Write a sequence for this structure.
């Protein structure tokens, strides 16, 4: 273990470059998975004939598959069907599909938690089903799902490390490269990577707790 040799600027900068890519992948995947989650969760809640049942099967299936498998399929299998993506977008696609399905369930739970009396009152006042969903139910559900959504964001950030399997040059891939060049650097690099993950995830956890307090107030 050579902490002094490992913690020189060239190695630190190399790991920080990988971490920046980790944050980029996570950021794009979070935005896209939020959109996917709202669409899928809303369809499941509205119970459209056939469509909602198909969405339910897709969501439940993906939620019960390993994210590692989905990332591999995105990068290795989809090109066989003519869908070619760079390693960056393959990682984003895999994370988006998986996390989007998780968010869909969070949203569906939020929608189901809305007091039925509010929905009945809105309908009796002349609002249509979709107007009630758009103006009454969905805004409240989104407000309630903010804390669990942030928790899911933390999980997504950590899950980006699985993209090391497709050689995405993110943080853990850079840790592996440096450690492969000098095994004495493995532990220092892992410790440094753990610190980066901890700082960002703990900050998000504190933010989530504060939001949860405000929502419950």
């Amino acid at each position: 273990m050579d902490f002094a040799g490992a913690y020189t600027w060239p190695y630190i900068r190399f790991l920080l470059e990988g971490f920046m890519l980790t944050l980029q992948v996570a950021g794009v995947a979070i935005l896209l998975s939020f959109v996917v989650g709202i669409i899928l969760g809303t369809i499941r809640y509205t119970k459209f004939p056939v469509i909602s049942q198909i969405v339910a099967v897709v969501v439940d299936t993906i939620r019960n598959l390993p994210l590692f498998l989905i990332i591999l399929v995105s990068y290795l299998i989809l090109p066989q069907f003519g869908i070619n993506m760079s390693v960056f977008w393959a990682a984003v696609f895999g994370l988006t599909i998986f996390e989007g399905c998780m968010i869909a369930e969070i949203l569906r739970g939020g929608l189901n938690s809305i007091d039925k009396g509010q929905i009945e009152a809105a309908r009796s006042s002349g609002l249509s089903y979709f107007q009630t969903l758009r103006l009454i139910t969905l805004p409240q559900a989104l407000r309630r799902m903010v804390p669990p959504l942030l928790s899911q964001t933390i999980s997504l950030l950590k899950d980006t490390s699985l993209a090391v399997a497709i050689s995405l040059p993110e943080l853990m891939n850079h840790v592996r490269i440096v450690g492969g060049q000098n095994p004495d650097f493995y532990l220092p690099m892992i410790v440094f990577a753990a610190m980066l993950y901890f700082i960002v995830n703990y900050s998000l956890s504190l933010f989530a707790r504060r939001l949860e307090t405000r929502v419950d107030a």
Notes: Residues 110 and 158 are 24 Å apart (CA to CA). The mean pLDDT is 87. The chain has ten helices and no strands. The longest helix spans residues 9-46.
